[in-house]
Amino acid sequence: MSSTATDTTHKTGDEAETLTDGFHLVIDALKLNGINNVYGVPGIPITDLGRYMQAEGMRVFSFRHEQHAGYAAAIAGYLTQKPGICLTVSAPGFLNGLTALAHATTNCYPMILISGSSEREIVDLMQGDYEEMDQLAVAKTLCKAAYRVLHAADIGIGIARAIRAAVSGRPGGVYLDLPAKLLGQTMNAAKGAASLVKVIDAAPRQLPAPESVARALDVLKNAKRPLIILGKGAAYAQADDDIRALVETSGIPYLPMSMAKGLLPDTHPLSAGAARSLVLKEADVVMLIGARLNWLLSHGKGKTWGDKPKQFIQVDIEPKEMDSNVEIVAPVVGDIGSCVSAMLAGMGKKWSLPPTEWTQAVNSKCAENVTKMAPRLQNNNVPMDFHGALGALKRILADRPDVILVNEGANTLDFARSIIDMSKPRKRLDVGTWGVMGIGMGQAIGAAVETGLPVLAVEGDSAFGFSGMEIETICRYNLPICVVVFNNGGIYRGTDVNPTGGADVAPTVFVKDARYDKMMEAFGGVGVHATSPDELSRAVVAALESGKPTLVNAVIDEKAGTESGRIGNLNPQSVVAKKK
After folding, report:
1. What is the pLDDT of residues 180-203, one digit of tens each?
2. Which of 129, 150, 223, 567 could form a disulfide with 118 if both were Cys (CB 3.0 to 4.6 A apart)?
3. Does 484 share its domain with 359?
4. Co-location of 141 and 246 in the same domain
5. Contact at 8 Å (CB) between 72 and 84?
6. Do 286 and 220 form a contact (C-beta atoms < 8 A)?
């Protein structure tokens, strides 16, 4: 019998039947599969579902907007390798959550968006039900899989399918449609319990073909200037020890993508992070582990990669990823853990290290760039520039390796990515493959909930604006999150002007001297106004030590930013405007 069977009884003669319903079957199915945290926004028709979940011991985190609840669920999936759950109302609420679902799919985060919906018979005849929408049809185009459950007896199998689809193979987002009528359906409690499914081996290992491993190692050992690129897929795999052993055994310099930082410490002697331009241009063999040759790596071609011939080895669980932009001479298809383990075994004890000229050249360039940058990170300018402010945060995090860093913005993201070192895996969470702004507060909340660790969210003022209201959520649940808003009064900079001389400010300019810290105070948290790196450092240290919800309004020189951070080249330029 279900542990959450209702008290409803149906009597026939002297017999009494104990019933359960759709609400409780959903709860039992999730709990049976070890899912206890839910992120969402209550409303019709799922308000009572959230209440019952909490009554049954689940943690239900109620947000101010579904999109941010979805980002929390998505990052929960990334951190735990179990699907994060986002629960929304129908139609508009579903659409709000859909952005996060698509984001999860693009970034390969396991997540399930569960939404209440209108009844099928009304939707199909387009009779104008409350918040009527064919949600399943809309969701299918933006996620890995989409399912609808119409009968209480199928809830167990529906949730099991959603879980398996979310985490197996290349992880991603899954949509689960629960019409309102389903939640109130009743059935025999014993039969309901029997209908539940505990998913066994939801993400089975996918072993690489031995010949593919041998081929990759053969290409690698003949390289004169090899490079390993680690992507967030490598971080998701949680094969940290083997990945470190592979790098150190091979002696090959490695370049971590932003969310792979910390798989090995950024201060590791084989880290090529400070010599990115050099290694991408000069390498002759590049092995990608859980990284894609998308726009973040200039598609594997062009000026970024120089004019020297290159061979690519790619380790990925998705075979369709191979040859997506350039020829992959040695594809290794399988889960990251199994592939790296097989490559380590194939190396044996007599692996030849790369030529010392190559590793010395990389180390020399790293040292040169670090030395050149050091004075800029030590400045105590007022108002602050990005380097002085991030230099202060860099030193704080160096002493606190367990703090999780959430980072978004244009300049705030781009500078932080290269300035702040990480020393442990999955401690840097940012905008991901799409470069989505607005992930900040959702990801900070999800990270704090799932790990119990302190979180430092470093936000551009524009990026913070997307999700700023969720600081009330942070205060409501008393989460150990310190938000630092880099406030330069605008998008990129606060200095643009209206070319017409009219009263309206330029499209990229915000209210001058805004006090974001007062927002946090309004909800009972700690607000601090910081105008120098020293003040910023003191405020952040105090916040991390206290564990209290804190927002630091860090005043940045409005002239300090650059257009679109480091990807301004993606902005089309008007030839006509230049001629004028």
Report:
1. 999 999 999 999 999 999 999 999
2. 129
3. no
4. no
5. yes
6. no
